[in-house]
Amino acid sequence: MRNHWVRTGLLALTCALLGRAALAGPRATAGEKAAPQKKIASAPSPSKGRVFHTPEPPGEAKLGDVWVSPKDGGEMVYVPAGEFLMGSAENDEDAQSDEKPQFRAYLQAYWIDKCEVTVAQYRRFCRATGRKMPVAPPWGWRDNDPVVKATWYDALAYAQWAGERLPTEAEWEKAARGTDGRTYPWGSMWDAGKCANRASSPGGVKPVGRYPSGASPYGARDMAGNVGEWCEDWYKERAYQRYATGDLTPPASGSAFVLRGGTWFDDDPRSFRCADRYSLPDYLFGSTGIRCVRGPA
Fold it and tell me: Cys-Cys link to 88, which of 15, 92, 244, 248 (CB 3.0-4.6 A)?
């Protein structure tokens, strides 16, 4: 079975090839409570909903609705309140121990970026705040690509500037897999043609949203590939064991932050599963990006 630290070693190798920088700065905390367990229905596929160009997200929304942020111009998709299956079953041979057990959790409604934050959006943030762009990756800066080499603190600063925040692990996982515990955003079977990975994108990232057939049940794209996405939470190997008892409050401290989602240089299907979780200790990679949330709605 693939080991968490083996993957971290692979990320370190990528870091050596693409460059690195130290992290520094403060962080915030957030949390929710898990709900009593009961049968969960599969999330319906989002139909074409309404598109809102308003200063704030609408007070009443439904699956398929999109809100366009006036700050960075990004589209956010709506994730309704309710339960979902989080984590992996004990008998899942593809799962690592840090993503077990599988349990039911309840989240309030929220909005999540439809796509990863782009180079153009991040450049707008840098111009507005005086922050510097990261060192460009080997393929250069292209406006519609996801911004890369973003540290957790870069991601946090961007989210705060946009009037948003980084997702908790629970929010990220629900937005990726819906309510039925599916393995990948699109279903139960691996399909390399539905996300950016080493086979489909060997030279680097793809423009955001390039794989609409790989979208999650809520319409979020690229959650299984392209770049890993920072979550708000500190990484703790046994966090899911506590979450399964009913307490979804993220860890209050740690030595590394959580990243979720497979990347363009991954080729192991297990790395693209919605429940897969990993961390980075103190480096900046050519495969780390940003996705923000707004809410609870």
Answer: 92
